[in-house]
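Students often ask what a 'structure token' actually looks like in practice. Rather than answer in the abstract, let us consider ABC transporter ATP-binding protein, a protein of 299 residues. Its sequence is given first.
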Amino acid sequence: MGAIETVDLTMTYGPLTAVDGVSMQVAEGEFVGVLGPNGAGKTTLLEMVEGLRRPTSGSATVLGEPVWPRNAALLPRIGVQLQASSFFERLTAREQIHTFAALYSRPAREADDWLERVGLAEKAGTRVEDLSGGQAQRLSIACALVHDPEVLFLDEPTASLDPQARRNLWDLLSGLNESGRTVVLTTHHMDEAETLCDRVAIMDHGRILEMDSPAALVRGLDAPTRITVAPGLVDRAAGRSIDGVEDAEVGVEGTVLVTREPARVVSRLAELDLLDGVQLHTGTLEDVFLTLTGREYRA
Ligand SMILES: Nc1ncnc2c1ncn2[C@@H]1O[C@H](COP(=O)(O)OP(=O)(O)OP(=O)(O)O)[C@@H](O)[C@H]1O
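Now compare that with the structural description of the same chain:
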């Protein structure tokens, strides 16, 4: 059984089609990222799959159950962290997560463990409105996880986290995924998607443009390799016949050699003893993203 299946899922707001006929499947145990420019429809898509928004048309199932009308049987099985954290006012971090735990009949000690796991044990007695942005975000993630859901939805979970908290959250999410949980997150961080996700969906204008593993998406881009050499070496390389690499097409942009035959070019550089400081850059997920979605600002 798949963890998530959507069929032609669509949401319109007046004349705007925010999500435009999305059909996708996520297998149980998969880690999936949804990437897209601002306004692409990621949050709207997730909120329909979570059963928080009624689609204009189309349908979604999670763990084989329809999500709309709101399905009470599903609630204990899914965890949802929203982009705008909404907390019970004037509660401390501990009271907040204890309340969530109690809603799902989970013991308070497990709630305390979650505070520890997201690095908030020291802030347990702080009121939620006095937490920093990143601390509040970690609390909202802990609240989404406290009932040990099978499918986890996170909307830009690392948006306001510092580098330490971001890496710690990566470890936490990878661990949950390795223990069989399905994870779906939205992110603007390509490195995050590349590191964590089995597959990523690249969205724009309400549609999924591509959905595949990061490696397959990058391979599909068929980008040339850029070989950065130390300043001055390009001339020496050219002077000493880099085109001794027969038939290897090598473009030169400043101190960068651009080629589709990096192995041959690098071995020629080695022969010429010009390897010092050489760096290789192949295509990245960001290149795929920008190729598919363009570079103009979004509303
Ligand atoms: N309640 C609403 N009423 C009208 N338009 C809406 C509503 N919610 C979202 N939209 C519009 O739908 C489009 C998709 O919004 P959505 O929040 O899903 O994008 P997103 O991909 O999550 O963007 P971001 O990366 O900025 O979070 C946007 O143009 C947004 O303005």
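One point worth highlighting: Residues 224-282 form a domain with the Alpha-Beta Plaits fold (CATH 3.30.70). Ask yourself how you might have guessed this from the sequence alone, and why that guess would often be unreliable.
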